[in-house]
Design a protein that fits this description.
It is a single chain. By secondary structure, this protein is α/β, with parallel strands linked by helices. Helix content is about 35%, strand content about 20%. It has one domain: Alanine racemase (TIM Barrel, Alpha-Beta Barrel), CATH 3.20.20. An 8-stranded parallel β-sheet has the order 7-6-5-4-3-2-1-8. The longest helix has 14 residues.
Length: about 190
């Protein structure tokens, strides 16, 4: 089981404190936040996870810093990762709730995207999901774990602060926890 501390909108000092407490893996969902913290010398040795929707134009600057791309959800991202970060480790994000406004590959397209990424020389380690906010997360976690097993992948990233225990019970190998580690996050600034 791997814990990824989600540092969204947290200052670098909070991440430094988490690192001192033994946290190694830290996730960011915004490219500019990940880059700023990755360049901070006090956070050297951190394994950075890109957990937000990946914009292809940000891959070039993030590539030297990202340990695991957790939200690969479309072919354009696969192509750009293969170009800018050959052999990058990634998880395919699955939109288990088929929510039209949310990132993630449709469940019916997961196997194909996994194949495409592998064919491009990328290291597909597993799958990731974020269940619909108001839904019972368990069916989504069970579905994701089933897909991971069917595709013979190693990693199953699911579960956040409010539901990580359910995710662990359903077979998560990675959980992404933010507010339970850092406390309530600050409010985003307009445009930030």
């Amino acid at each position: 089981m791997r814990l990824v501390a989600v540092a969204k909108l947290q200052p670098a000092a909070a991440v430094v404190a988490a690192r001192r407490a033994g946290v190694v893996d830290v996730g960011e969902n915004r490219a500019q936040e990940l880059l700023a913290k990755a360049l901070d010398p006090s956070l050297s040795g951190t394994r950075w996870h890109m957990i937000g929707r990946v914009q292809t134009n940000k891959i070039k600057v993030l590539a030297p810093h990202v340990h695991l791309w957790q939200s690969v959800d479309r072919q354009e991202v696969v192509h750009e990762l293969a170009r800018r970060a050959p052999a990058a480790k990634l998880l395919v994000q699955v939109n288990t709730g088929r929510e039209p406004h949310k990132g993630g590959c449709d469940p019916d397209g997961v196997a194909r995207l996994v194949e495409q990424a592998a064919a491009h020389g990328l290291a597909v380690e597993g799958l990731m999901c974020v269940p619909p906010v108001l839904a019972d997360p368990l069916p989504h976690f069970v579905a994701l774990r089933s897909m991971v097993d069917k595709l013979a992948l190693a990693e199953c990233s699911m579960g956040m602060t409010g539901d990580f225990e359910i995710a662990i019970g359903a077979g998560a190998t990675i959980v992404r926890v933010g507010s339970a580690i850092f406390g309530r996050r600050a409010t985003a600034t307009p445009g930030g």
